[in-house]
Write a structure and sequence with these properties.
The protein is mostly helical. 80% of the residues lie in helices and 0% in strands.
Length: 205
């Protein structure tokens, strides 16, 4: 069995990233990626299961970072069960947003690939599914730990607030905001989102 030439891995990865970022998954070409990398298409197929497998490999680290952040956030929210301080819950939300922003910019190209260039790939819906699961987990947490008698309308508003938060991540990448611009944008958005949480749990809906 022939051994892979691992010296080819880096140029293939860089070529694939450039091709997908410029053209999106659907219009990207394995032939173009091979040409950019200076390798044969056969060299690509010995490493990846086609265009989709190559695309998925480019965002694996980003997906892992998102999953680890989600697990860390779950631990932070559970602190509320100990102190029952709603300000702690709001602080956890702010910390969570800051954590995701750090990940987006640490893995900027990968986040752009997933959020803006993945249409038609097997990973197209991964981020939206992750966010749906997060919304579901949060609603369950609220019902079990914050307000046992919370109304369906308030839970719908919780979902709306969280969806706006998650949509902001895609908009940030699509608009090409710098990290400083993003921090300012999130600060302003956070004032609206924070006011929404306050209204739901401390207001008179």
């Amino acid at each position: 069995m022939a051994h892979k030439n691992h010296e080819l891995d880096k140029p293939i990865i860089e070529a694939a990233k450039t091709e997908f970022l410029q053209n999106g998954f659907q219009s990207a070409s394995i032939k173009n990626i091979a040409k950019r990398a200076g390798v044969t298409t056969g060299a690509l197929y010995t490493r990846y299961k086609g265009k989709d497998g190559l695309f998925h490999s480019l965002i694996e680290d980003f997906l892992q970072a998102l999953d680890e952040e989600r697990k860390d956030n779950r631990k932070a929210y559970m602190k509320y069960c100990v102190d029952k301080n709603f300000d702690s819950f709001l602080n956890s939300i702010e910390k969570e947003i800051a954590g995701y922003i750090d990940i987006l910019f640490k893995h900027y190209d990968e986040s752009k690939l997933l959020l803006c260039c993945s249409k038609g790939s097997s990973v197209e819906t991964i981020f939206s599914e992750m966010m749906k699961n997060k919304v579901s987990e949060t609603k369950t947490f609220i019902k079990e730990n914050i307000d046992l008698s919370i109304s369906k309308m308030k839970l719908d508003l919780v979902e709306l607030l969280m969806n706006q938060q998650f949509n902001a991540y895609t908009l940030i990448i699509e608009k090409g905001y710098s990290k400083d611009e993003t921090i300012e944008y999130i600060k302003i958005l956070g004032e609206f989102i924070g006011a929404g949480w306050e209204k739901i749990f401390r207001g008179s809906l």
